[in-house]
Amino acid sequence: MDNTIFALDIGTRSVIGLLLEVNDQSYKLVDYVIAEHKERSMLDGQIHDVVLVSQVINDVKKELEERHNLTLDKVCVAAAGRALKTKRTTITKEIDQHPLINKEDVRFLELSAVQQAQHHLAHEEKDTNSQTHYYCVGYSVLQYKLDDDIIGSLIDQQGQRAEVEIIATFLPKVVVESLLAALQRANLEMAALTLEPIAAINVLIPESMRRLNVALVDIGAGTSDIALTDEGTITAYGMVAKAGDEITEAISDYYLLDFNEAERVKRQITEFGEATITDILGFEQSVSLEDVTKAIAPSIEQLAQHIAEEMITLNNRSPKAVMLVGGGSLTPNLTHVLAKKLSLPINRVATRGTEAIPNLEAQVDIPEGPAFITPIGIAIAAKQNPVHYISVTVNDRAVRLFDMKQLTVGDCLLAAGVYIEKMYGKPGMAYMVTFNKQNITLPGSHGKPPRVLLNNELINVDHPIKHGDQLYVEKGQDGVEPHVTIEEMVDTYNSFSITFNNETYTIKPTLKVNGYVTSPDYILKDHDDITIEETKTLAAWLQSVGKQSLLAELSSYIVYLDNQKIELSSFSAQLKVNNKKATPNQALKANDTITFKPAKKAAVSDLLNLLDIKATKKLNVIFNDQKVELEKHIISVYLGEQQLSLSDLVAPESKLTLKQADDQAFIFQDLFRFVSIDISEIKGNVSILKNSQPATFLDPLSENDVIEIKY
């Protein structure tokens, strides 16, 4: 019996239990049992009295066990579709200071959106004075946005704002918990769980048909569950709290029947076309299907109106076709009225029965029509798409999850109420600094995402989980204050090279913090005032390298001679840029070549030569057959009262005077300053001749005179 499924359809009016045998893609209905609730222990598909419902479940179970001599301990069931809630929400995150880096960060953003949807749902329930607690059983991302523009992925994106829009599905905890409690009292374990709309749609609208925009409505006793397909998937679920009981109550009110008698009349007239009724006053009469249809027309109209409105709300328009299942779908004239409400042709709204289920074989007679669609669908859907409950611990707290899909760590965090956003590390405190009189914010480092450990192993939030897993979530590390050097802030200020007297220098801006010169590796602090002084002129650069004294040497070399100002430019200091005379305020640029020649001191002779003044007079004579050059000063240079020699150096700003010699002619005795005569050799008479003529020591001399001294 490994391939036999025990399924229960726990409805408002009755419980249907069946055994279904599965072989590959075919199904065989082995047997079924129907038991009605003795009291109204269920309302609108929700268990209100666990004990009474469990008794009916146990009766159905025992009868099937006795018929087939087997023990049933596991069962497939469905949760009422009316319990599903869907919420659509958008969450935005500022990322200019916290960029999204990897898939994990995006996943945390999605989970934050789901938590926001859960929060909104909780507020809505609170506003309606409901204490319902919901589990998220799944969500889908509708779109991502970056700075208000739709984008395919947020991973590694940079911008101001990241946004994600999701649609999340929730199921009340009480729905599943009460269902589990009723099964446990009947000694049954939930083998798999599905949702009633999924059960019905799974057998009537296979995936190959879901590209069509089709609606399936399961009209039971208490609720009408709606499921819609389009573009290859189930697009929406909904519920109307109007169903077969409203039709029964309308018959009861019109013909003065108690509820159970009205229910009998409804079934009989649906099956046979007429029924005999006895009202509460004892009057008996026969009614036809046409009579009843006219009598309860307003109620049929109202039921169709509610279903149509919900369908259009979920689908944003009328679907292309509508399938009706469930006992309430046999309400007379309902298909025609619903088609009119949806503006559809009459043949686009139809009731479907078990004959529409492909690959189904029944070993026993089953009622014709739509009543058995959902029970059989529960068995098939629970087998094909089972939903399990698993239990895990999150930070040592037990959490039970509704497993409608492959559960992940993220699902556990949602179920445990771990607020994802608060688990992120806080960004480090930012610094405010002033840079060249402009306020700048230096952000701290980003906070780290939370660390998630599954069974003591570090994993991400997409990691799958299984029953019994232990999960620990640690808050991410906080960011730290900024660690920025002044060089990192001013790297846009380019340095450049120049050459000074064949030596290369690199010119960099002067960095100051709070008025003091600092090094490029200075680490900035909060409220620092940073200024950048760029070296723009030749004078500024000379000062920055300690050569500012050279500028003082650039003054002109000036002396005064007899009160006349004389500039000795050839002896002045010279500063050139690219072989052109430079000025101190000249702007420097890359690859400039600077040369500096210091000033040199001028001698008295240099000054006289510059002024083309002859300081001496020369005369050539022949003395004793040898050529002799005579020289004598014809002017004298004085610094104050001090006579200067021709080799004496003259300081700038010196005040000099010139004096002419009194006698400028050469005489015979001047010769003796330039020749040497050994007097010891002189003996006898001495003769002095000039040009062979006798002469005296005072005789004037002329150029090329021939002088002789004979003794």
Structural write-up:
By secondary structure, this protein is an alpha+beta fold. Among the domains are: 387-428 and 445-480, Ubiquitin-like (UB roll) (Roll), CATH 3.10.20; 484-600, no CATH class; 609-710, no CATH class. It has 16 helices and 46 strands. The chain has a five-stranded mixed sheet with strand order 14-13-12-17-18, with helices on both faces. It has a five-stranded mixed sheet with strand order 21-20-26-24-25, with helices on one face. α5 (244-255) crosses α6 and α8 crosses α9 (334-341). The longest helix is centred in the first third of the chain and has 25 residues, at 103-127. The chain is rod-shaped.
- List the uncertain runs: none
- In spatial order, strands of the major sheet run 14-13-12-17-18
Amino-to-carboxy terminus distance? 169 Å
Helix fraction bin: 10-25%
Give the strand tally.
46
Per DSSP, the total helix count is 16
Give a brief description.
This protein is an alpha+beta fold and 711 residues long. The protein is built from 16 helices and 46 strands. The protein is rod-shaped.
Write the layout of secondary structure elements.
Blueprint: E1 4-10, E2 14-23, E3 26-36, E4 42-43, E5 46-47, H1 50-68, E6 74-79, E7 85-94, H2 103-127, E8 134-146, E9 149-151, E10 161-172, H3 173-185, E11 189-195, H4 196-204, E12 214-219, E13 224-230, E14 233-240, H5 244-255, H6 259-272, E15 274-278, E16 284-288, H7 289-295, H8 297-315, E17 321-325, H9 334-341, E18 349-351, E19 360-362, H10 373-384, E20 388-394, E21 397-403, H11 409-415, H12 420-423, E22 431-435, E23 438-442, E24 451-454, E25 457-459, E26 470-474, H13 486-489, E27 496-500, E28 503-507, E29 510-513, E30 516-517, E31 529-533, H14 538-544, H15 549-552, E32 558-561, E33 564-567, E34 574-577, E35 580-581, E36 593-597, E37 602-603, H16 604-610, E38 616-623, E39 626-633, E40 635-639, E41 642-644, E42 649-650, E43 655-660, E44 687-690, E45 693-694, E46 706-710
Parallel strand pairs: 3-19, 6-11, 12-17, 17-18, 20-26, 22-31, 27-36, 32-43, 38-46
Antiparallel strand pairs: 1-2, 2-3, 4-5, 7-10, 8-9, 8-10, 12-13, 13-14, 15-16, 20-21, 22-23, 24-25, 24-26, 27-28, 29-30, 29-31, 32-33, 34-35, 34-36, 37-42, 38-39, 40-41, 40-43, 44-45, 44-46
Helix pairs in contact: 1-3, 4-10, 5-6, 8-9
